[in-house]
Every structure is written in structure tokens, then in C-alpha cells.
Amino acid sequence: MGIKLVVAVTDGSWFEQLRARSELNEVNFWAPSAVNFRALSPGELFLFKLHAPRNFIVGGGIFAYSTALPCSLAWDAFGAANGVSNLIEMRERIGRYRREPLDHRYDFEIGCRILTQPFFFEELYWIPVPKSWSSNIVSFKTYDTNDQEAFELWGAVMQRCRLQSVKDAPQPRYGSPQTVQPRLGQGAFRVLVTDAYRRRCAISGEKTLPALEAAHIRPYAEGGEHSLNNGLLLRRDIHSLFDAGYVTVTPDLRFEVSRRIRDEFENGREYYKLHGQGISTPEAATGRPDASALAWHNDNRFKG
Questions:
Q1: Most exposed among 172, 216, 253, 287, judged by the fewest C-beta atoms under 10 Å?
Q2: Distance between CA atoms of residues 204 and 257, nearest Å
Q3: What backbone phi and psi angles, to 5 degrees, belong to 71?
Q4: Which segments within the chain are labelled E, that is strand?
């Protein structure tokens, strides 16, 4: 069974900035407009092709997720993994592509293709584009490894990854092309949780996007994962209280508030109004909070 590959025209500055950052485990391949990207499924290959006349494939990553975000949130989630040095530079570059006057009060909405395990080839290993590539392609072209040309491209990518000993890149040695399980980073975690909860706080229903944050139920530093079912979308103040143990969510998905807010701060009326209510959860059962992670938070964080 074949899989899909995307070869995407890539901004040269984006490529140069990111290939110098070998520590990155995810990147945001953004588009200047909020286009809907459905060309790949999670685990398939997204490859970088430089602008003409440099008609070479120079790296890639494992496709994890696609969405549209305000550029400020994309910057907050991915920072330098957007291929820019700061938010001002990001706004300016988006504005140039959109050919719009730059207004720093306006938050462009952009398309985000989130890639994990990115890899960047040394020039020695750059791959010429397939013969079917057309000079009038301005965005991307999709290939299917059931076709010989795409099958050979897959093989060339795998060969380069082995020759260069690319860290974390897909390197299957035998058999037919296969998908690779994306290993989510902090940015991808934040975006997936935000969208899964329909951009609303799971407790309060707040939907002002800049006020919302993706909370780990079990912290990453203490054995938790950057996975959807280890996440909750919370209003910023509730997130702070959750991390500090003044509030929790029980394994049966009810919000509880510690009496210590009242005892220590002589406050908390707004939070006590929410005590005992059920939380909102993602529609897909696979994305709902993991009961064992919630039990961990109840036992190890919640102040009771």
C-alpha cells in the first residue's frame, strides 16, 4: 500500500534559519494565508524544495497536523521553529507574501503545517526534483509511492538520511514505504489541544484565544507526554491554579476546587461557583483526558 509525499516550495530564509537549529524537534511550515491543507495524513512525509533555480529537495519532516492560527499564537507556540527570529520579522515576512501593508495591530491568520522530526540535508545530499515537477508550481505537489517516480523519491530520501546519519529522521531500511509515528513537541501539543477543545476553556467555556493555554495533566518533566489525552485547554488563571494544585479534574471528569484558596487567599468565589461541574471534552474519545493522568494529578498535585 502506497503513502503520500508532499514536495513543497520553501522560503530560503526559513530553510537557512532552521537548518542551523539542530536541537529543534518540530517546525511550523506556515503559509501566508489560512489555506486548508489536506494533502497528507499524520505520519506521511513533507519535503522541502527550494525556490528556482535551486530545484532541489533539501530536507523534510513528518507531517503531524494542519490548522489555521493567528500569527501571534503560531509564534507563541513555536517561536524560532517558525523559521524567523522574532514576531516582528514573522509579521513582516507574512506581509510581503500577502502583499499587504504592514499593521502591527493586525494579527494575520496563517496556515500552519506542523512537522515533527525535521531533517535538513547537507548540500552534498540534495535531491533533484522529480521529472514531473513543473516550474509553474508555486505551493506544493503531492506524490503517491504507488507510482514509480514517488517510490524512487522515497528511497532517495531514506538513503540521504542514512548517509548523513540524520538524527530522528525516518530511516526504514527494508520493505515498502511506511508512515512514521509523529513525536509531538510542545508547540504541536499546544495547537492540537487548542483545536480538540474547539478553542474553548474546558472549565469556564472562555473562547478568547489569547487567554487560553494547553495544560499538561501530568507534567512533561515528571513523566507526562506531549499527547492530546494528557492535555486540557484552560483559561490562563485556571491553568496556573491547576499547575499549583489549587484545582483539579477528577477521573470522572469533574472540576474540583481546593478549600485552600479560601483559607490562604480569602478569595476564590468565582472558582467555587464552578466546583463539581463536568468539564467539556474533545468529541473524539481518543482525545479525551486520560483517567490515569487525572488520578496522578489528584494524588500528586491537588491540595484537597
A1: 172
A2: 13
A3: -65, -30
A4: 4-10, 26-31, 45-50, 56-70, 109-120, 127-128, 140-144, 212-216, 231-235, 247-249, 255-257
Please count the other Cβ atoms lying within 10 Å of the Cβ belonging to residue 140: 19
Q: Is this model's pTM higher than 0.85 or not?
A: yes
How does pLDDT run across 227-272, given as a tens digit for each residue? 999 999 999 999 999 999 999 999 999 999 999 999 888 888 899 9
Decide if 46 contacts 29 (C-beta within 8 A): yes
- Measured CA distances, 179 to 32, 79, 174, 226, 258 (Å): 28, 27, 13, 20, 45
Sign of CA dihedral 257, 262, 265, 270: positive
Q: Containing H/E element for 164?
A: helix 148-164
Total residues found in the chain within this entry: 304
**Phi, psi dihedral angles at 12 (to 5 degrees):** -65, -40
Question: Which residues have CB under 8 Å from 274's CB, separation 6+?
Answer: 203, 204, 255, 257
Are 177 and 3 in contact, with CB atoms under 8 Å apart? Answer: yes
Q: How far apart are CA 19 and CA 122, in angstroms?
A: 9
The kind and range of the H/E element at 7 are: strand 4-10
